[in-house]
């Protein structure tokens, strides 16, 4: 059974991430004086530091993902994916999940790559499985987890197993219940008659501007939540096993930490159980505030509103089961 690419839907021009980013920049210029005064407070300086760190940390991986996505769109023939993946989508899902090991990047790069795969005719369920697994099970992330949890190899194994299982289960659920019209890829210029290298750079520019705007919006939101969530709330929840797991899963969504650095944050939350910290490590690379904005920009808002709760619920449940067995 073969799959054709999801057809981009052309709609009326609406305010998107680029326009929103331009509006924010204009507001910053106009309100420069009051903003300088406002940023004298410790909370504002913390907010600015977190926002800049999120964007700077994510930007290289976003660019990497955009380059890979453009290369897939321009240079890789559709026949390659027909040969590389099983023809049955149900079998393509676990192959895509394990293939995530090969991409040494973070979640910001996997979103545009998954969009490029869907454009090239890969079954959406397989592309989404790859999107979830790549930032959580690649060698860089696993080594970072081993360094953050010295003497606890079971934590590395639990993260790998829980992340791969979550990605595959979400892929199968999307294959069973998902609908093609829930995915709305942004309209791209027709590059079919353009020389390949010209088409490559036009594709890079289009995707970088589009995804970068949503990255900034997600970073702004995540920084605000970082400043406003009191740490004492976490300390009060640590003694409640069920609430502790939910609390760290939600914290992973709010903090929007890169998957290559989140293990060190999880290790520092020593008042929480290993299972709760596993939930933090599994949920974060798959769905957070930053990723939600980027997924909405790449696949459409309707997709993100359905996909995010599915991923969060599955990741928490699989983390609990995996933690009870391996930790």
Q: β content, as a range?
A: under 5%
Number of E-state strands: 0
Radius of gyration: 20 Å
> How much helical structure, as a percent, in the residues?
over 70%
End-to-end Cα distance: 40 Å
Q: State the order of secondary-structure elements, H for helix, E for strand.
A: HHHHHHHHHHHHHHHH
Describe this protein's structure.
- The chain has 327 residues and is mainly α.
- It has one domain.
- 75% of the residues lie in helices and 0% in strands.
- The model has no long low-confidence stretch (mean pLDDT 80).
Q: What's the structural blueprint in terms of helices and strands?
A:
Elements: H1 17-30, H2 32-38, H3 42-75, H4 78-84, H5 89-99, H6 107-119, H7 124-137, H8 139-148, H9 153-177, H10 196-228, H11 231-237, H12 241-255, H13 262-268, H14 274-283, H15 289-299, H16 301-326
Helix pairs in contact: 1-10, 3-6, 3-10, 5-7, 5-9, 6-7, 6-15, 7-9, 8-9, 8-13, 9-14, 9-16, 10-15, 12-14, 13-14, 14-16, 15-16
Features:
327 residues; 16 helices; Putative permease; DUF318; transmembrane; UPF0718; single chain; cell membrane; mainly alpha
Short description:
By secondary structure, the chain is mainly α. It is 75% helix and 0% strand. Belongs to the UPF0718 family.
